[in-house]
Design a protein that fits this description.
The chain is an alpha+beta fold and 104 residues long. It has a single domain (14-103), classed as Alpha-Beta Plaits, CATH 3.30.70. The protein has four helices and three strands. It has helices spanning 14-23, 26-39, 71-88, 91-94, and strands spanning 42-52, 59-67, 97-103. It has a three-stranded mixed beta sheet with strand order 1-2-3, with helices on one face.
Length: 104
């Protein structure tokens, strides 16, 4: 599977920028987006947004990515991404950054 280096937006949505600044997540988010591009066959550029749990009011960053199928290869690549993420992104940051994948 070819590795793709995704350009990290210099301008994230304002709410994401604020959340990153308040939680010291910008570096971890940049690294995570890079890992996504290196690990998954991403189509286009991922979308980055804030999501809030309505019951607990907890917030986190969601990186939405569309990847090329078939689903079995995308799942294998996702599993490799999880391993790379655990090894390179601090646990505190991992708990605040999530990935949503849609297989195209």
């Amino acid at each position: 599977m070819p590795k793709q280096v995704l350009p990290v937006a210099t301008r994230l949505p304002r709410d994401v920028e604020v959340f990153c600044r308040e939680n010291e997540l910008r570096s971890a988010l940049t690294d995570f987006i890079r890992l996504v591009g290196e690990s998954l066959p991403v189509v286009g550029r991922p979308r980055v947004r804030i999501q809030q749990d309505q019951e607990s009011e907890a917030c986190w960053i969601v990186v939405d990515a569309t990847v090329k199928g078939p689903a079995s290869k995308a799942l294998a690549a996702y599993r490799a991404l999880v391993t790379r993420t655990v090894l390179s992104i601090p646990e505190a940051a991992r708990s605040r950054i999530r990935l949503s994948v849609e297989v195209d």
